[in-house]
Amino acid sequence: MKLKFDIQLFSEASTKTEKATRRKRQEARKRGMVAKSREVTSAFALLISVLFLKFAYSSIVEPLQQGSKYFFSNLNYNLEDVRDASRLLSFIITTSLKVILPFCLTIMLVAAIVEWAQSSFLITGQSLKMSFQKINPIEGFKRIFSINSVVELIKSILKVLIIGYTGYSYTQSFAKKLLEMYGMNVLTIVKFSLDSAINLILWMSVMFFGIAVIDFIFQRQQYEKKLMMTKEEVKEEFKQTEGNPQIKSKIRERQRRISLQRMFQQLPKADVVITNPTHYAVALLYEPEKFDAPRVIAKGKDYIALKIKQEAIKHRIEIVENRELARALYNMCEIGDFIPPELYQAVAEVLAYVYSLKNYQKVNIR
Question: Which residues cross the membrane (predicted)?
């Protein structure tokens, strides 16, 4: 019996040379795929727990001290009596909650915030859904022999080395100081031991942060690598996107805005604006040294026509009311077109009027 392996399953990554598109990233995010590191969450949780123990020491020790005093001063409990047993149980639960609850809630809150921040405040249940890929033996085989497994092994070794080296070094220093405290008050020695343990864990958590930062960078790179696409996938997505009516509508709207911006930029060059007077407006430019016929450099209907007239007034361009000519120019010409020969006579009369008006104004100004 021969086993056949699909080489493409293992060489697929080599064909993915293109960076993920925006759509691919959005789809991955909807599925709960984000770049995050468990080491960052663990490092933050460890650091906050140590800082909590260090700075909220009294809030932990005091309930324990008071509870111990109360417990040892009331040893005459009759556990066969329901009232005594319930009072003792209530006391133990209350004291335990006072000590444990603030600590646990703080750690849970910090871990949740860090996880949430790493995922850019994403809340989704997609990652909890059952997927065939999770139980696919080939995918499992690839995960076992992937770079992630090697990195996880290296991280575990680093953690063991850090804990071992730091613990050994710190224990030697602690033992010397402990010998110097021989004969001191027991509470002082206990407090010193607790402080030393907290400082040891604090120092370890700082070093774990270094691992967490490196791991976060690695996870980010792996995330980008996982999202990479083949050239065929990019082309196919482009076709799907371009075929989407909503996308097409947005593209047309954007093109329309750009076209209007260019049109209004050209408008100040116009020699005349011919209007309907309210529904249509067409701006003409005549450059006899370059072209034989005038050109339409702007045109609009209703609101755009009003804007053209406003811009014409602003730039002191002559506005001529001619209903039939304005409508004909609007229907027969696009922006950038030369006027058709059948409108030469009508446009020539308008331009002659405009030029004579300008000459008259110049003479009067002199």
Answer: 40-60, 99-123, 144-168, 200-218
What's this model's pTM, rounded to 2 decimal places? Answer: 0.48
- pLDDT of 192-213, one tens digit each? 777 888 888 888 888 888 888 8
Report d(CA 130, CA 151) in Å as an integer.
26
Q: What share of the chain is helix, strand, coil (3-state, %, to 5)?
A: 70, 5, 20
Task: Give me the sign of the Cα torsion angle 312, 318, 323, 326.
Answer: negative
For residue 214, give every residue at least 6 positions away whose Cβ sits within 8 Å of its Cβ, in sequence order, or none: none
**CATH T-level topology, domain 266-365:** name from scop (3.40.1690)
Query: Are the beta carbons of 351 and 307 closer than 8 angstroms?
Result: no
User: Long-range contacts: 282-288, Cβ < 8 Å, 24+?
Assistant: 282/326, 282/329, 282/330, 282/333, 283/308, 283/312, 283/317, 284/329, 284/339, 284/347, 284/350, 284/351, 286/351
- The domain locations on the chain are 33-121+136-228, 266-365
Report helix, strand or coil for 169.
helix
* DSSP 3-state of 145: coil
| d(C-alpha 11, C-alpha 210), whole Å | 33
Can you give the pLDDT at residue 326? Answer: 92
